[in-house]
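Let's study a protein:

===
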Amino acid sequence: MASYILQPPGTDVARISWHLRDLITRYQETFNVIEKCTKPVIAAIHGGCIGGGMALITACDIRYCAQDAFFQVKEVDVGLAADVGTL
């Protein structure tokens, strides 16, 4: 099922690209809704906050961390520019 979601049937590059753009836009909207919420949104973090978790907490207004919380942006380890905070 994941292969169909990420790449619909067919070989038309333009349609596949448009489908992927639409999919990414829908996933991004989940973070945008948190960012646009008129009420304060609080994130509670314990343990590891990695990847998508970093994007999620940057959309929140307040972040509350336990003592064992740690944060990682692994994109920088492989030489990529991290997109955390570019919502």
User: Anything to note?
Assistant: The chain has three helices and four strands. The first helix runs from residue 2 to 6. Residues 18 and 24 are 10 Å apart (CA to CA). The two ends are 28 Å apart (CA to CA).
